[in-house]
Specification:
327 residues; alpha/beta; 12 helices
Length: 327
């Protein structure tokens, strides 16, 4: 199906169900939260007779200002509901333990579709964010689909965070045109940007700590390791600790940057970010995945962490040897 045909199929499926449940991935980012809450608002305003719930097993402290989820419902409700899963590449990352009971599953996502699931899938892995997909959906059916300032704010928040304020790969003319369409609903970008990007004093101290202790490999891979002691020292949540990946993105000559963060279960979470160099294949090697320039993985211990660093160094060395114009 082409783009318009799949959007029509999505609209038809939404129309078919009186009960709709929306869920997103575990450890949510701004795009996951914005997609879920923004889509919920679109359906509520467009089809006021439908019951729409946003249900997730975990909450997001960082994006709680956008809104929170609804209470879990019974298996019987799921069986007569359409479950829409947004921004979630694989079904094992759905933040909803009841998802398997849904009458039908609609997947809307912008990640590479390595592990398909759902009865209907709308996947566009070239999009800068999942919220960009939903903004496209909204604007494709004028007079049918509606939103308001709140709904547009949720979608805009997801677009701006997942695109790195429109600097990451995937940002194109359509991205900015759709962002402009959302701003026309009255999004207060001053307040929104303050919510998204202002941090407490302790977090700035953490940022300074990372910049002072970070490492650079011979080929230019920047990396840092945030262990449990550091997390406790600065009073960080796992989400806050993971933000350190972005602290290293402006080092000239460093086209790959890695953040390793201790998980509560003893494993080590990895955030892989890059400029120009494709890193999702490296993430796949370590049981993860994601976008070409923004991926995630998990390693078992320090030895595997070092192996990933070595692989990233070799990848960057090869890229620099075979490409020009990488600054």
């Amino acid at each position: 199906m082409n783009n318009m045909q799949i959007k029509q199929a999505v609209l038809d499926l939404i129309r078919e169900y009186d009960s709709i449940i929306i869920s997103r991935h575990i450890r949510p980012d701004g795009d996951a939260c914005g997609s879920a809450l923004g889509l919920k608002r679109i359906i509520e305003l467009s089809f006021p007779d439908k019951t729409v719930r946003y249900i997730a097993d975990d909450e997001s402290e960082l994006y709680s200002f956008l809104g929170s989820g609804d209470q879990q419902v019974s298996e019987e409700v799921y069986r007569r509901s359409l479950l829409i899963v947004v921004d979630t590449a694989t079904d094992d990352r759905i933040s909803n333990s009841m998802a398997r009971f849904a009458g039908k599953i609609l997947k809307i996502d912008h990640h590479i579709d390595n592990e398909p699931y759902g009865d209907l899938c709308w996947i566009e892995d070239g999009r800068s964010s999942n919220c960009e997909l939903l903004a496209d959906f909204l604007t494709s059916f004028p007079g049918v689909l509606k939103t308001d300032t709140y709904g547009a704010t949720c979608l805009y928040a997801g677009m701006v965070t997942d695109s790195g304020r429109f600097m990451f790969e995937g940002t194109c003319g359509d991205t900015l045109r759709l962002a402009g369409a959302l701003l026309d609903y009255g999004v207060d970008i001053q307040t929104l940007y303050a919510q998204l990007y202002m941090d407490d004093y302790a977090f700035h101290k953490f940022k300074a700590h990372v910049l002072q202790t970070m490492n650079i490999t011979p080929s230019g891979v920047a990396w840092t390791y945030v262990d449990n002691d550091t997390i406790k020292q600065f009073g960080l949540s796992l989400k806050q600790a993971s933000e350190c990946a972005s602290f290293m993105e402006k080092i000239r000559g460093s086209l790959i940057w890695l953040a390793f963060i201790d998980n509560p279960d003893g494993t080590i979470r990895v955030r892989l970010r890059s400029r120009f160099v494709t890193v999702n294949s490296l993430a796949n090697k370590y049981g993860g995945g994601g976008h070409a320039n923004a991926s995630g993985a998990t390693v078992a211990d320090r030895a595997q962490m070092q192996a990933l660093i070595d692989d990233a160094d070799a990848l960057l060395a090869d890229y620099k040897a075979n490409h020009r114009g990488w600054l």
